[in-house]
Automatic annotation (TrEMBL):
Official protein name in the record: Cupin domain-containing protein
Gene3D superfamilies on file: Jelly Rolls (2.60.120.10)
Domain Cupin type-2 span(s) in chain numbering: 34-100
InterPro entries per the UniProt record, alphabetical: Cupin_2 (IPR013096), RmlC-like_jellyroll (IPR014710), RmlC_Cupin_sf (IPR011051)
Domain of life: Bacteria
Length: 111
């Protein structure tokens, strides 16, 4: 067992527009926190792994090719590998607990 301290907790980005911190990595999954400040822009690209976001703080809108949805604390979002997605209209500092399966970046070429 491992208690993952600080996962999903809002942390102001240090010197960058957004902040991604990985807390745990094993071959089949990774867990991290992604923070976007109010008014910030989400410039991520599609990932090679499936992912689940759990909104722990803040409010925004998620945009995918299939549509948009307003999200806030308690929202759980599944994004399949390769799907374009981004958060916009971040009206309150957004903190997301993120789970990747398998581990983030593990399906990228050369890894």
């Amino acid at each position: 067992m491992l208690i993952i301290e600080g996962a999903g907790v809002w942390t102001p980005p240090a010197g960058a527009a957004n902040d991604w911190v990985e807390h745990l990595r094993v071959p089949d999954l990774s867990v991290g926190t992604y923070c976007i400040p109010a008014g910030g822009l989400d410039n991520q690209s599609p990932h090679t792994e499936d992912e689940i976001y759990v909104v722990t703080a803040g409010r925004a809108r998620i945009v995918t090719p299939d549509g948009t949805a307003e999200v806030g604390p308690g929202s759980v979002i599944f994004v399949p590998a390769g799907e374009e997605h981004r958060f916009d209209e971040v009206t309150e500092d957004l903190a997301l607990l993120v789970v990747f399966g398998p581990a983030y970046g593990s399906r990228m070429a050369g890894r």
